[in-house]
Design goal:
Helices cover 0% and strands 58% of the residues. The protein is mainly beta. It has one domain. Strands 1, 2, 3, 4, 5, 6, 7, 8, 9, 10 and 11 form an 11-stranded mixed beta sheet that branches. The chain is globular and about 40 Å long. The two termini are 12 Å apart.
């Protein structure tokens, strides 16, 4: 599940929720379990809001773990990185925070992941959301 909402006065000005009933999901473990990439694609051809890509990474040499983290752009050497791209919005590089509520990730697979996020985006305002990924089956 991916749920994203923005400030009412922002460019996006709406909320979206994707589940297995209206989207396909792909979750990849990266950097030996220190980062993940989740892509969500709406299945309705009329829904032009996606795909959405969420990238989250821990500082190099550390792994993803439950907790609340201040974030900046994904590819930073020493900090927590987070980018959200989709819905005709490229929201990356902004300051924000991510709370990882639950995670089970190996260097090769994402088994479980549940997080909440908030991110300040240029020309969009603040995006907020939740993401839940459970392995088997990915579709």
């Amino acid at each position: 599940m991916l749920s994203v909402s923005s400030d009412p006065a922002s460019l996006m000005g709406q909320s979206r929720t994707y589940t297995l009933q209206n989207a396909t999901f792909r979750a990849l473990s990266m950097r030996g379990g220190g980062a993940l990439d989740i892509t969500v694609r709406p299945t309705d051809p009329a829904d032009k809001s996606g795909p959405w890509t969420l990238l989250l990474g821990s500082p190099f040499g550390r792994g993803l773990a439950p907790g609340t983290y201040s974030t900046t752009q994904f590819e930073t050497d020493g900090g927590w990185g987070f980018d959200l791209i989709g819905g005709h919005i490229d929201c990356y590089g902004g300051a924000g925070s991510v709370t990882i509520h639950e995670i089970a990730i190996t260097p090769d697979a994402v088994q479980r992941f549940r997080a909440s996020f908030s991110m300040r985006c240029t020309n969009v305002g603040t995006l907020r959301g939740d993401v839940v990924a459970l392995a088997d089956p990915w579709r």
